[in-house]
Amino acid sequence: MDLKQLRYFCSIYDNKSLSAAADAERIAVSALSYHLANLEAEIGAPLFTRKSRGLEATAAGERLYFHARSILKTVEVAKRDLSTFRDNVSGEVSLAMAYSAIQAIGVQLAKVVVEDYPDLQLNMIESLSSTTLLHLSSADADLGLAYNPPLTSTFKATPILEEDLVLIGKREIIGSGSEPVTVPELLDFKIIMLRQGMAARALLDHHKTLEQIYATSQLQMNSVHAISGAVREGLGCTIGTTLFMGDEIKSGRLHWRPIISPTLTRTLYLCEQTDRPPTIALETIRDLIRDLMVRAVNDGIWPARLIEAE
């Protein structure tokens, strides 16, 4: 198995056709078929089956594609990294960011890259925290900002800041006062939540409380945009940060109340894969993210508490 075989295999997978892949790779169909046959012989299992709409990957093909993409991405990153030992930072970095992080520092990060690093290409992906980890696993992202990620040996997760969560909704739903709401009182509200599953653990650190809220939650959605729209329509209220729907809160269209007994919090982590060596470009973006987050918290743009690095 070599890099050329893996590249040809990925092209067949993406194009679902030997002829289309041959055109893309500028190679004869017979030669491509030869490489595929050798690869299947080495794997010891067929990688594709023929369907009416073209080639479809087998279970072995799906697994190989997952690994092949990561291998090819790592090789490409290595080539770019070795070519960046010069004064100007260059290369490509993909960053998967939680919705709140996009709101707080996304535009400023893009501005700094455009103005100060003209040879650096930044790809920003807005995603739920669980999806962020999938982007990292599949090599679609080099860095990720995710809330409460599971602690595994696969990822290096560094806590950056902690946020308090509040109750957000229309005044006629959550009341017009500013007095705190206790956690037991939350169960009497129509709470709109992120759908249960991996995305849910990103909501808050208190998992027992989370399960209690889910038990009484009528609406569950897997989109922060859908949740914000439902809250604006008065279909219920939600638990989030004041940054989450800051414009609506500032305009008075929505209201918020603190949550106590206990105070609900969530922690944002900067994540990257442990087996992927950092590049100069990645280290540059990582440092920029940290600096911008510290500035956003200190300037009051991001209501949160910074976590001291150990």
TrEMBL record:
One of its GO terms (biological process) is regulation of DNA-templated transcription initiation. Keywords: Activator, DNA-binding, Plasmid, Transcription, Transcription regulation. One of its GO terms (molecular function) is DNA binding. Residues 1-58 form the HTH lysR-type domain. The keyword Transcription applies. The keyword Cell membrane does not apply. PANTHER family: NITROGEN ASSIMILATION REGULATORY PROTEIN NAC (PTHR30293:SF0), TRANSCRIPTIONAL REGULATORY PROTEIN NAC-RELATED (PTHR30293). Belongs to the LysR transcriptional regulatory family. This is Transcriptional regulator, LysR family.
